[in-house]
């Protein structure tokens, strides 16, 4: 059972580990720009993920693959300028770390130096172990990501739930234990069975933050455009919409256009 969230002046990687020890749930949301990040930070969210999902919700791509390292740095720097409390974690985009550990380190250094972010996130397990170790050895905090890994979508061929079979589930547990052992401060599990996510959270001492993997874990993450209802056509089972901004914004824009065309805006009080 979770306990009430304490007040933390600044969230760090150590804070998250302490939150797990204390039974405090971790709230993580994505953000990609200054204005949105400022609202998220002021709301008391613990972690902002500058996700490669920017490729989808900001740039309109079908997958996360097209976004570049330069673009991720741009989004991350915009977010960091807004933040006073949140821990800011940045996705290493596809092609910036898979080729070799040296490339992974160079990409991570660029993110940390040019954006001011606090940590990076990589998708994968033992196949990228050496890359993660090299990044960690440079003093850069790493968040892991297992289960459904969107950068590998063409390998999987589908966005359906991962690790439903025993072999893949055991491999995921092994990878999670490995990520903890080499020094990652947390791991994201995406779209895996809730029973498996709970098992992982019980077996490792670092926080397990999930999307679409149940509540018996240490924290949750959602894409902000989904949870506030801007991406109205996306309706997975795990998504709870806290707002319906698509309808609200559409209505506002329609009303604005009507007011302009009918001469109602601006009125006498709305001019100099």
Describe the fold and architecture.
This protein has 272 residues and is of the alpha/beta class. It folds into 2 domains: 229 residues, Phosphoenolpyruvate-binding domains (TIM Barrel), CATH 3.20.20; 29 residues, no CATH class. Helix content is 41%, strand content 13%. The protein has an 8-stranded parallel β-barrel with strand order 1-2-3-4-5-6-7-8, surrounded by 7 helices. Strand 6, helix 9 and strand 7 form a beta-alpha-beta unit. Helix 2 crosses helix 4, helix 5 packs across helix 6 and helix 8 runs parallel beside helix 9. The longest helix has 17 residues. It starts with 12 loop residues before the first helix and ends in an 11-residue tail after the last helix. The mean pLDDT is 94.
SSE layout and pairings?
Elements: H1 13-22, E1 26-30, H2 34-42, E2 47-50, H3 54-57, H4 69-80, E3 87-91, H5 101-115, E4 119-121, H6 129-137, E5 142-147, H7 153-156, H8 166-182, E6 186-190, H9 194-203, E7 208-211, E8 219-222, H10 224-227, H11 245-261
Parallel strand pairs: 1-2, 1-8, 2-3, 3-4, 4-5, 5-6, 6-7, 7-8
Helix pairs in contact: 2-4, 4-5, 5-6, 8-9
């Amino acid at each position: 059972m979770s306990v009430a969230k304490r007040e933390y002046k600044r969230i760090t990687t150590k804070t998250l580990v302490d939150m797990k020890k204390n039974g405090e749930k971790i709230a993580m949301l994505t953000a990609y720009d200054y204005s949105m990040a400022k609202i998220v930070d002021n709301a008391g969210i613990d972690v902002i993920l500058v996700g490669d999902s920017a490729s989808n919700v900001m740039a309109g791509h079908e997958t996360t693959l097209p976004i570049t390292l330069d673009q991720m740095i741009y989004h991350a720097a915009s977010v960091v300028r807004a933040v006073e409390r949140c821990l800011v974690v940045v996705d290493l985009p596809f092609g910036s770390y898979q080729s070799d550990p040296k490339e992974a380190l160079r990409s991570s250094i660029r993110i940390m130096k040019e954006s001011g972010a606090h940590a990076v996130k990589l998708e994968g397990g033992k196949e990228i172990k050496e890359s993660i170790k090299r990044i960690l050895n440079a003093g850069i905090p790493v968040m892991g990501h297992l289960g459904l890994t969107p950068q590998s979508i063409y390998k999987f061929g589908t966005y359906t739930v991962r690790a439903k079979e025993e072999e893949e589930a055991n491999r995921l547990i092994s990878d999670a234990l490995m990520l903890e052992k080499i020094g990652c401060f947390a791991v994201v599990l995406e779209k895996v069975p809730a029973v498996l996510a709970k098992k992982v959270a019980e077996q490792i001492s670092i926080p397990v933050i999930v999307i679409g993997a149940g509540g018996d874990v240490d924290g949750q993450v959602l894409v902000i455009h989904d949870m506030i209802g801007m991406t109205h056509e996306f309706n997975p089972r795990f998504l709870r919409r806290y707002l319906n901004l698509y309808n609200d914004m559409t209505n506002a824009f329609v009303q604005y256009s009507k007011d302009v065309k009918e001469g109602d805006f601006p009125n006498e009080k709305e001019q100099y």
